[in-house]
Amino acid sequence: MWESFWAIAGWLAVILAVISLFGWTVTFGSTLATFYLVFKHWRLRKAGMEAERRLLAHGLPTEAELPDVVVQIPTYNEGAMVARALDAATALDWPRERLHIQILDDSTDGSTIFANEEVARRRAQGFDVVLIHRKDRSEYKAGALANAMTLTPHGFFAILDVDYVPDPDFLKKTMTCLLADPQLAFIQARFDYMNRDANPLTRTQAVLLDAHLAIEQGTRCWAGHPLPFNGTCGVWRREAIEAAGGWRGGTLAEDLDLSYRAWRIGRRGSFLMSVPVPGELPETMKAWMVQQQRWTKGFGEVMLRLLCPILADGSLSLADRLKAAMHLGVWWSGLAWAVALPAGIGAIVLGAPLRWELAGILVGQLLIGYIALFVFLRAGNLSLRPGQTRLSDFVREFVQVSRDLFRIGAAIGPAQREVIFRKRSEFVRTPKSTPAPKVV
């Protein structure tokens, strides 16, 4: 009996060891990709920022020649934020007769009443503002954007989530770039944060997003890699949206999906590091988990839908296919960490062959992974906010970030499983700190 038990345990240990080694191979590839992006960022940063300055210096046509721009503000049960969003939209420095604002309201609570009142106020002031209310929420944000496009003939769409507040020169800067280069499909501005220092969790998110925006988005733009739209704080060219097949709600990441479809037909985006747009970060762990679960699932859905077709697309160069694979394939690294670590520990406990070597690999991979994370985050911090955070202070922030990432890693497990088993789910908006309106 005991012989059978130990025989089974031995085979199980070997299987777990193989699974662990495979997982560590995937995570090591992701680690190398992280170091590559950091290296590439510092190599290209000076030239990239200079190219951005030249693009912004092109200037706009005369006011009479400026095109019509539609500002789209999607909202769902966030009526209390509509007033602030409309204040920012109507303050944009663009000819009033060529500025059109759409509130894309899929609300199911009293928010629509509140939003209608705010829209009526702005219309009385002479602004072209409309509220487009849908009752079915079909295809979620993608459906709202696609539906609103059919209601206007204009050629440029600025997309701003309701919690983002652009500066008045936002349109002038982004449209300068779009009009200077007809091949650009969209311009993506950089997120900034109104509540960065609200609590330790918002500081964690700011550190993570700074690295994402600078090291990932900035570097991809400068290096000619596929650049994903972040879903807000950007301006799209109508012709590019339509040529790529329009907004589609088949995934929870309609922004990433459209970006890659546009990229496959030769339309690229550009990222503006020097144009910040402040917005709200989730202030509770529960709200952040909701956001991260949606982002994780949406990214995974797009990866499953597009990665294989991209790799098989002979019209793309091998280099372009590898660049896309490096980006989309990173989704597997999080799952690989979640599998490789417990599998490795299980193999060691069950006495797998070469278990001490396996333990060394496990410890080494954890150490290298944490070094890569620190380098990635510190590089983003130094690139966007040079001189603002001393190394000793950043180390303390990194400890907090590590704790928060451990908690979020456990929370996104269900989203990863739903991607693998192709289970559809609702688009759940990130809860906002601004209270909902009271409707009497």
TrEMBL record:
Entry annotated with the keyword Transmembrane: yes
The way it spans or sits in the membrane comes to: Multi-pass membrane protein
User: Where found, per UniProt?
Assistant: Golgi apparatus membrane
Enumerate the Gene3D superfamilies for this protein: Spore Coat Polysaccharide Biosynthesis Protein SpsA, Chain A (3.90.550.10)
Q: Which UniProt keywords apply?
A: Membrane, Transferase, Transmembrane, Transmembrane helix
- Family annotation (SUPFAM superfamilies): Nucleotide-diphospho-sugar transferases
Superkingdom: Bacteria
Asked if Transmembrane helix is a keyword of the record, the answer is: yes
Pfam families of this UniProt entry? Glyco_trans_2_3
The regions listed as transmembrane in this protein's record are 6-39, 330-352, 358-377
Q: Where is the Glycosyltransferase 2-like domain?
A: 157-350
Q: Which PANTHER family match?
A: GLUCOMANNAN 4-BETA-MANNOSYLTRANSFERASE 9, XYLOGLUCAN GLYCOSYLTRANSFERASE 2-RELATED
Q: What is this protein called?
A: Glycosyl transferase family 2
